Amino acid sequence: MNDVANLLARAECLIERIEGLLPAPAAAPDWTSANAFFWRRRHGSGVLLPVTRPHSIRLADLCDVEQQKARIDQNTRQFLAGRRANNVLLTGARGTGKSSLVKALLNEYADRGLRLIEVDKEDLKDLPEIVELVAARPERFILFCDDLSFEETEPAYKALKSVLDGSIAAVPDNVLIYATSNRRHLMPEYHDENLLARHVDGEVHPGEAVEEKISLSERFGLWVSFYPFSQDEYLTIVSHWLKEFGLDAAAIADARQEALQWALMRGSRSGRVAWQFARDHAGRCE
After folding, report:
1. How many CB atoms lie within 10 A of CB 160?
2. What crossing angle do the helices spanning 271-285 and 231-244 adopt, rounded to 10°?
3. N or C: which terminal CB in the chain sees fewer CB atoms within 10 Å?
4. At what angle do helices 98-109 and 66-80 cross, to 10 degrees?
5. What separation in angstroms does the CA of 42 have from each of 68, 132, 138?
6. Which residues contact 132 (CB under 8 A, 6 or more apart)?
7. For 30-34, 166-170, 275-279, which range has the lowest pLDDT when averaged over its residues?
8. If you average pLDDT over each of 115-129, 152-166, 233-247, which comes out highest?
9. Mean pLDDT for the chain overall
10. How many CB atoms are closer than 10 A to CB 8?
11. pLDDT tens per residue across span 41-100
């Protein structure tokens, strides 16, 4: 019996030492310190870090995306009102305002209890831990994943699928996921995957690899697409930002040709390029 007791004592001691090496559960932050947070891993444990200077962009600053803005704004207001709302996937051309729109929602609705948690792609495997941390809070949380894309072998891919719509545990009502991506299906697609398709009695069955890729994006209830801007739309955005930076109508009109040359050199007429030109031009005019 003494041998058994000694063995049990040594086993308990070993377990205690192992538990001491394991990362501790994430501690709740000071929720009053900020409206936005970064999820980061520190010494093996996850932590929510307050964003002391969130982006100040407003919904009114986003030009020529009125339809997209209206759909996401409506979904967010439903969410804040405690009504049913969907996870959102924003896809399309780069620099067209996908990420800015999510940041603008925080500025618009922070006083109504909206909170934003930005999660890097590499940390998406921690989504269940984040959800558990905020589940009992009275605020409404958007988990924001920017510039999302995956390879099939990444563990974060499965974690995101599970949180969206693939786990036995329901996601709490105060959590939604908003993600942006340049890829509609979030994963690279290859020509040779078409070889996996097969025909049975005249019916086409797509290959399982293709189905796997589509299944992730289908878990987002709301898809919102963004498109490249025309020249007139690009100039409208330039004018908006030049006005915001203090230039008068005459100075804005004089900047038109330079704005077009700037876009030509950058090879893009995106909203991001328009904002960058406006900052440069306004800075030189001060």
Report:
1. 26
2. 40
3. N
4. 40
5. 37, 18, 26
6. none
7. 166-170
8. 233-247
9. 81
10. 10
11. 876 678 899 998 888 899 999 999 999 999 999 999 999 999 999 999 998 888 888 999
Phi first, then psi, for residue 229 (nearest 5°) are -85, 145
95 sits in the region (left: phi over 0; alpha: psi -120 to 50; else beta) called: left
Q: How many CB atoms lie within 10 A of CB 251?
A: 14
Residue among 164, 142, 144, 133 at smallest CA distance from 75: 142
Q: Two tokens at 133?
A: 């941390």
Nearest residue to 277 via CA among 95, 105, 65: 95
The 10 Å CB-count burial string (b at 16+, else e) for 50-87 is: ebeebeebebebbbbbeebbeebbebbbebbeeeebeb
For 7-21, 159-173, 195-209, which range has the lowest pLDDT when averaged over its residues?
A: 195-209
Residue 174 parent element (H or E): none
State how far the Cα of 101 lies from the Cα of 143, in Å rounded to an integer. Answer: 14
Secondary structure class of 198 (helix, strand, coil): strand
